[in-house]
Design goal:
With 307 residues, this protein is an alpha/beta fold. Helix content is 43%, strand content 17%. It is built from twelve helices and nine strands.
């Protein structure tokens, strides 16, 4: 403020004389005293208005800040993709984007290119196993992510169910949950969700599968420890719950799956599609058992071991 004042003072002295200079100087000081403090408040006021505007956007556009990315998996079940995509797009909480990960297979499967063209797709010529989808998930741009097995057709309120449950109890959610009977064996676990005890409320479990719903930020915890190179076909589900348990206070849950409201379920046709010849469980249960014992040795605590 000094330079304009000096220029004004010099100009007044040259053109008007001392009396006029005294008068103009006093007027200038008066204006400065009144209005200059107000000019300092204007940016702060604008900031507060922006904050208020942002608050209104958050309160009025919840869909924009709580978006969901969905990942569909392709391997050897091309016949389920069209139905699965339709079920995802028919959700009451519509996803902001749908991605498709096609794993390489020796027995090549022909997927519907018209459906794939509607998604952000990555098709691999190599079988990277079941872990690759969680690496592919790093490309998602939403707050939440839901990854589906290729035999999993969700009810139309599945994503809505997951979001509402997450707000009550943040953590990892899935449509089928396992509660192990002991830390000695993977076999004989109690099943919670669509294929087991139909829980009316949120139920804590040891691990979840068939569909995984979680906040994108949780991927940093998922990949905090890398899998061994020989862990290829199994373990991605157990690893997720183990990492959350080890590095955070987040737990693993199954959202409500009431017997009389299948719209909330994460899997409607698991029995039809999940028991075919390409099901991982048909040959990998013994490998799952070995992986379970491995993470227990490393420190994974099951629910029945805590009590």
């Amino acid at each position: 403020m000094k330079r304009p004042y000096l220029r004004l003072k010099r100009y007044t002295k040259e053109k008007l004389g001392l009396k006029q200079l005294f008068f103009v100087t006093n007027i200038y000081r008066f204006i400065k005293k009144i209005f200059y403090p107000l000019t300092r408040l204007i940016p702060r006021k604008l900031d507060s208005l922006r904050d208020l505007d942002d608050t209104k956007k958050i309160e009025g556009s919840e869909q924009n800040i709580e978006t969901v990315s969905v990942i569909l998996s392709g391997y050897q079940r091309p016949h389920t993709l069209k139905e699965q995509y339709a079920a995802v797009m028919n959700q009451t909480y519509r996803p902001s984007e749908v991605l498709f990960w096609q794993n390489g297979s020796v027995k090549k499967a022909s997927f519907d290119e018209e459906i794939i063209s509607k998604m952000k797709a990555a098709k691999s010529n190599y079988n990277f196993g079941v872990w690759a989808r969680f690496a592919f998930a790093l490309n998602c741009k939403s707050k939440y992510i839901c990854i589906f097995d290729d035999d999993t057709i969700p009810g139309k309120k599945w994503l809505e169910n997951c979001i509402q449950s997450y707000k009550k109890k943040p953590g990892l959610y899935g449509t089928i949950g396992l509660i192990y009977k002991s830390k000695e064996s993977y076999y004989g676990a109690q099943r919670i969700g669509w294929d087991g005890i139909n829980n009316d409320d949120i139920r804590e479990v040891d691990i979840v599968g068939h569909a995984w719903f979680f906040e994108r930020e949780m991927l940093s915890t998922y990949w905090k420890e890398l899998p061994d190179l020989d862990d290829f076909y199994v373990g991605e589900d157990m690893h997720f719950s183990y990492m959350l348990q080890k590095y955070t206070d987040l737990r693993t849950y199954v959202p409500p799956h009431p017997i009389n409201n299948k719209e909330l379920w994460g899997s409607l046709k698991g029995e039809k599609y999940g028991g075919d010849a390409v099901a991982t469980g048909s040959f990998a249960v013994s490998i799952m058992d070995n992986y379970f014992k491995k993470i227990v040795r490393l420190g994974f605590k099951i629910i029945n071991d805590k009590r």
